[in-house]
């Protein structure tokens, strides 16, 4: 009888397929305009809110240019089940959040003109629960 493979506790990463492609667009990005979405007040942002804003911005600019996300949700928020009794330890991790201080840049958008980039960042800002401002760099 053959030995069974050992079960892993954590799921493994996918292997990257192919080599990363170098495009000429990345070299032109330094010459083009850059827009920044900056927090005007302190607060917390959920990982799902960041992803919703990212998807909305990418949809508005029709996936052109380059979008950088400068925040990462690294604070776990735990929650016990609603029907759980008191005690028996801390609950499971429910979601992850990122702490933002006022003046922190959230998104950078490169290689898009103003008539397309500013409305895209405004629609992405509507998905976040903070007062935000758009700067042209």
UniProtKB/TrEMBL annotation:
Classification via Pfam families: Ribosomal_L16
Matches recorded under SUPFAM superfamilies: Ribosomal protein L16p/L10e (SSF54686)
GO cellular component: mitochondrial large ribosomal subunit
Keywords, comma-separated and alphabetical: Mitochondrion, Ribonucleoprotein, Ribosomal protein
PROSITE patterns per UniProt: RIBOSOMAL_L16_2 (PS00701)
BP GO annotations: mitochondrial translation
Transport recorded as keyword: no
GO MF term set: rRNA binding; structural constituent of ribosome
Family: Belongs to the universal ribosomal protein uL16 family.
UniProt cross-references to NCBIfam families, sorted A to Z: rplP_bact
Listed name of the protein: Ribosomal protein L16
Organism: Akkesiphycus lubricus
Origin organism lineage: Eukaryota, Sar, Stramenopiles, Ochrophyta, PX clade
